[in-house]
Design brief:
The structure holds two protein chains of two kinds. Chain A is mostly helical. Chain A has helices spanning 2-6, 9-31, 49-52, 58-88, 91-102, 109-120, 125-132, 135-143, 156-180, 184-192, 197-208, 210-225, 230-233, 242-251, 257-290, and strands spanning 33-38, 41-46. Chain A has a domain at 55-243 and 277-290: Orthogonal Bundle (MetI-like fold), CATH 1.10.3720.10. Helix content of chain A is 74%, strand content 4%. Classes of the chains: A mainly alpha, B alpha/beta.
């Protein structure tokens, strides 16, 4: 019986071999070669120079991972309580809320980001609001400075905001769907045995919802690392991230897909290591709970 | 679990919804703007909704997007769910590596996934070509198509590819949570495996499947890069159309279509919710009071459907629906496939779209009109074999690169009599010295756009870009070629220099200004809303686009600085081995006509290279709008010779110089 069920994995493994592994191998080949133009045309030649020259981009790597980690933590801090609260509402509310959480993401990414730009600009919606309610005047009188607006756009904070905005639903949905399915009798048992509501949360709900948290963290952190355009639009091009760097190799004036593939490979290896560490930690927790 | 929320919980949910919907509300508000700005409100109007229904490109791309996203989501959800079940019944030794590979499409930068899938498909097509040729040569019973193209099928495959990981990631936690003994128990009690699946596993993991499907659909709708590299030259999704507009600007038509889609989903949601609430109430009533009188017809249908034969009927009906769906898609494809076509790739908002309809009516040739984000994006797609466009409209420097790499076909000028109308000034230009490959489409200059309310006096030099006087108020153009080219010009060098020390000197100028905080940021198409909203004083951009901004902010002024600047030509060319060469000639000739040039000039505010159109435009404008064309505006649009004389045209730089530009530019961002 068990074997029969695992047969379901076979078509997917074949699919992955075709559409995931082969393209990755193509990119691996790209990353380990350079194009040499000669009279006979363009040929590929083995070379490690794409990797050896990567030291230039250490700061981009550092910034990408750092901002992605911050965005993931913020998403978790916002997403967990919201999922928890949502799971406590009535079924009608939940049905609508779940769809409403995804709905903004069906509006094109660029439009949403442009919208954020006009909210965050120096002369934008938020600054005008701050001006009206006297927040800027208050700030000036407290600090003795003389500013006309808060600089929000084109800062690292704006980039994090953009990532949180884009990926928050990916944190909420898996956590919510796990919390929703928690066995109520477990919570009641804990309460009957005298646990305070804080302890019920800490010792029962939180550990049991960990698989959802892991999925959520993966779905926020992983795309955040390779995100592009957010940093260009909200970071004002001064906060270059890995996604932009890679995009630049494929779609920039220099057109160097080999370097782009190499950067992507290195990025992927670091992400895989991060995920393995996290999954290991996560599974350990889960087993501890089961015991 | 269920206990009521306190006020804190409600407030928390409310705040998150405010955060999620604030930009959406703004976006919807600007779909009703009378102007075309997404920063400046000019009064209420429904004009964007009206133009939406005339905009075939947007409407078609919406249909394609929905079709592709729904198909890909359905396939990915079904496949992902079964795969997750399979993976979870494997031992950890097998499970972990499979899950790691599963995450790869998510981990990779989108562009890498897109390009690698494109290469993969193209390689497969080449293999197939050999195979089909061999099959066709050894037998004559069946004829296999020899040339396959990227299109709807590859697009859906690519979407399924990046959707499945999300489905698995959502289903997996629910499987982990599920008591594994449940299935065994069900089977011990006599369930078949299928019954156990439908009655035990499915209800348990359903929330995970639903959220997985939602995320998959979202990813599909929003994806641009992967679609761009796998859609081929005749299919275009909404996201592709939108990114194509960023070479100029994204029109509020997109806000309008997004608003409509948003409202449609909202209405479906509400109806669905009301229905389910009613059903729940009915169920409660049925449980507590006397049974609700059933509708005899519905009851009889329900009874019939629950018999074994009825269940088969349901299955067959579902299968039939699927077949009808697939066949209609196939027919649609076959129908459009049999019609003569021409594949055009240009920039978004770069043509008066009525021209496309007129051409189709006049010649009976369907125009597959695609748009690219930039010259480089188009180059990358063609280079990877991902497109078989007939006509493309690249800029000067890209044309010379394409010619150099042998990617363009010579034009048959005997089929393009309207070429005679192209002004002498725009023939035999450096990118195509003998004029064998190109027919110019538009031309214009690059200059400084500044806000007269924020700048004292007039600006006439590039020096303002690097001075402390306007610190924090200057927008740098986010394109290495333009930014460094301007700095070179300011220093008195040629924009096309290959002298490394001169380029480094130009870079030092920019870097120094950046360190002193002169630049507010680097922008491309965002320049529209930033300048229109008065958020920066000085920017560098194209003359035609300045005229668009001027309509939304009268304080803006434009100047081509005294040190000189760049002037550019975008021209129509035909790719090597273009599948519809003769149709391409007809299209080029049609677009080169005086009438088409006048209308394009009016629509996009870029000057025409057509002698007659240039001369006639002021009179034509007066006739159309009943007011005189401001001569100053005409001069900015079509720069006079004395301005052009101090401008330089880009030529294609050698690879080392391009790499140097790129490295320097990245260093500026780090």
């Amino acid at each position: 019986m068990k074997n029969k069920r695992s047969l379901f994995a076979v078509p997917y493994v074949i699919w992955m071999a075709l559409f995931v592994v082969i393209p990755i191998v193509i990119m691996l080949v790209y990353s380990l070669t350079v194009t040499v133009t000669s009279e006979a045309g363009e040929t590929l030649q083995f070379s490690l120079e794409n990797f050896t020259g990567m030291g230039l981009y250490v700061s981009v790597f550092a910034r990408s991972f750092w901002l992605a980690i911050i965005a993931t933590v913020v998403c978790l801090l916002i997403g967990y309580p919201v999922s928890y609260w949502m799971a406590k509402e009535g079924p009608g509310f939940q049905r609508v809320a779940m769809a409403l959480i995804m709905l903004p993401m069906w509006m094109n990414f660029l439009l949403r980001t442009y919208s954020w730009m006009s909210i965050l600009e120096n002369n934008g919606l938020l600054n005008q609001l701050f001006q009206k309610i006297g927040l800027i005047a208050l700030y000036n009188s407290v600090t003795g400075q003389n500013i006309e607006y808060f600089q929000m756009i084109r800062t690292p904070g704006a980039v994090v905001l953009g990532m949180v905005y884009n990926y928050l639903p990916f944190m909420i949905l898996p956590i919510y769907s796990v919390i929703l399915k928690l066995d109520n009798s477990l919570l009641e048992a804990a309460q009957d045995l005298g646990a305070s509501s804080v302890n019920v949360f800490r010792k029962v709900i939180l550990p049991l919802s960990l698989p959802g948290v892991l999925s959520g963290v993966t779905m926020v952190f992983v795309p955040s690392v390779s995100t592009f355009a957010i940093s260009r639009l909200l970071g004002g091009g001064t906060q270059m991230m890995l996604g932009d760097l890679i995009e630049n190799q494929f779609l920039g004036g220099a057109y160097n897909p080999h370097l782009g593939a190499a950067i992507s490979m290195v990025m992927m290896v670091i992400v895989v290591v991060c995920m393995l560490v996290m999954n290991h930690f996560g599974d350990g927790e889960e087993q501890a709970v089961m015991l | 679990m269920r206990r009521r929320n306190g006020i804190g919980g409600r407030l928390g949910i409310g705040l998150v919804f405010l955060f999620l919907y604030l930009p959406i509300i703004l976006l919807i508000v600007f779909s009703f703007n009378a102007g075309d700005s997404s920063a400046v409100w000019q009064g209420f109007s429904l004009q964007w909704y009206q133009s939406l229904f005339h905009n075939r490109l947007v409407m078609e791309s919406v249909a394609t997007t929905l079709l592709v996203s729904l198909l890909a989501t359905a396939i990915a959800t079904a496949a992902g769910t079964f795969a997750a079940i399979g993976i979870y019944s494997l031992t950890r030794k097998w499970r972990d590596p499979i899950l790691t590979v599963n995450n790869i499409p998510m981990m990779n930068a989108d562009i890498v996934t897109g390009v690698s899938l494109c290469l993969f498909f193209v390689a497969f097509f080449n293999g197939w070509r050999g195979f089909a040729e061999w099959i066709n040569s050894v037998q004559s019973v069946v004829t296999l198509p020899e040339r396959l193209h990227l299109g709807m099928v590859t697009l859906v495959l690519a979407h399924v590819c990046f959707n499945i990981p999300y489905v698995i990631l959502n289903v997996a936690p629910r499987l982990r949570q599920m008591d594994k003994n449940l299935v065994d128990a069900a089977q011990d009690l006599g369930c078949t495996w299928m019954q156990a699946f439908f009655k035990v596993i499915l209800p348990e993991i359903k929330p995970g499947i639903v959220s997985g499907a939602l995320i998959a659909f979202t990813m599909s709708v929003d994806d641009f890069v992967i679609s761009y590299f796998t859609a081929g030259s005749a299919t275009s999704t909404l996201a592709m159309a939108i990114y194509g507009m960023t070479k100029k600007r994204v029109t509020p038509v997109i806000n309008a279509v997004s608003t409509l889609m948003f409202l449609a989903v909202l209405v479906i949601l509400i109806i669905n919710n009301i229905r389910e609430m009613q059903q729940e109430k009915m169920a409660e009533k049925r449980a507590s009071f006397e049974p609700v009188k059933p509708n005899p017809f519905i009851e009889s249908v329900r009874e019939k459907l629950s018999t074994p034969g009825g269940r088969w009927f349901k299955r067959i009906a579902a299968a039939a629906l699927c077949v009808v769906f697939v066949v209609s898609v196939g027919l649609l494809a076959a129908f459009t496939g049999s019609q003569p076509v021409v594949n055009v790739c240009s920039w978004g908002e770069y043509i008066d779209e009525d021209l496309i309809t007129e051409f189709e009516e006049e010649y009976g040739i369907r125009v597959n009109y695609q748009t690219a984000e930039s010259n480089e994006a188009m180059y990358s797609l063609i280079k990877n074999g991902g497109a078989d466009y007939d006509v493309i409209v690249p800029s000067d420097y890209m044309i010379s690169q394409l010619i150099e790499e042998g990617m363009l076909e010579e034009l048959d000028y005997s089929q393009i009599p309207n070429f005679e109308l192209i002004d002498e000034r725009f023939r035999n230009l450096p990118y195509d010295p003998e004029n064998k490959y190109t027919v110019p489409y538009t031309w214009g200059t690059v200059g400084i756009i500044y806000n007269t309310a924020m700048v004292d006096g007039e600006i006439d030099s590039w020096s303002c870009l690097y001075d402390d006087e306007y610190a924090g108020q200057v927008l740098l153009i986010n394109n290495s070629r333009d930014a460094l080219g301007i700095a070179l010009k300011y220093l008195g060098y040629s924009m096309n220099t290959t002298d490394e020390s001169q380029i480094r000197e130009a870079y030092a100028l920019i870097e120094d200004a950046a360190r002193r905080g002169v630049f507010q940021g680097k922008v491309m198409d965002e320049v529209f809303q930033t300048m229109e909203g008065g958020n920066a004083a000085i920017a560098t951009y194209y003359a035609g686009d300045y005229l668009t901004m001027l309509e939304n902010n009268e304080d803006l002024a434009f100047v081509v600085p005294k040190e000189g600047s760049n002037w550019f030509v975008d021209a129509m060319c035909v790719l090597k081995e273009a599948p519809h060469y003769d149709n391409a000639m007809k299209w080029i000739n049609f677009i080169a006509s005086t009438d088409a040039n006048l209308r394009n000039m009016d629509y996009i505010w870029y000057a025409s290279p057509n002698r007659e159109a240039l001369e006639q435009y002021p009179a034509w404008y007066e006739e159309q709008y009943g007011e005189e064309l401001d001569p100053e505006i005409y001069e900015i649009m079509a720069a006079p010779d004395e301005v052009l004389d101090r401008c330089e045209m880009y030529v294609c730089l050698p690879q080392e110089t391009r790499t140097l530009y790129n490295d320097l530019w990245i260093r500026l961002g780090t």
